[in-house]
Fold this sequence. Notes:
mainly beta, seven-stranded antiparallel sheet, four-stranded antiparallel sheet, signal, HmuY, HmuY protein
Amino acid sequence: MRRISSLLSILLLGGALVLTGCDSTGVSGDDGEDDAPLTMTRVENLPGDPDTTSGGGYPQGHNQFAFFSLRDSSVVLHSDEQARTDSASTMWDLAFRGTDIIVNGGPNGPGQGAAYVAENAFQEVSEVTPDSLTRHAVEDWYNYNENGNHIVRPTPGHTIVVRTADGESYAKLRILSYYEGAPENPAESGAESRYYTFEYVLQDDGTRFE
């Protein structure tokens, strides 16, 4: 099982906290030697078009996506920005709006991005399954209203596998929370929704993660 062995950097990007660490397990190359360790990146409180109203009820944002680059670990475009030129570029890999997640490819962008949801826990996903990649929206990553409390929770044991917009790298990603501050019990905390916390590993040399 992988673990983060050291914290390398902390970046605050428009309200989203990005933590980057070094994975302690290397990736074996064809010669049997261990390559440099992969990097585990944690993104906290990425705003995915959060509520702009002052009342309760269904959240109403700007109805625009927030665009994120897995390659640069950075927000390319926030949902409240008016200029949307970068949304038509290959600078971003995933975009978030409410529970909607799209890739930069097919009907959603000019890139070669694609994704699928593996029905395996994060640490169990060791390699990309190319035939499973699709350029449609990422689905089945969450459960809703399981206990009648209208809460969105990431589906346990599911991992999102992504091909980046340039078609040259792959990532495996697990969403940890859909609520600001990633509270253990969102219903009791009253935390705002549409704030993503997730972790991912990026592989830019092949399709294996271990």
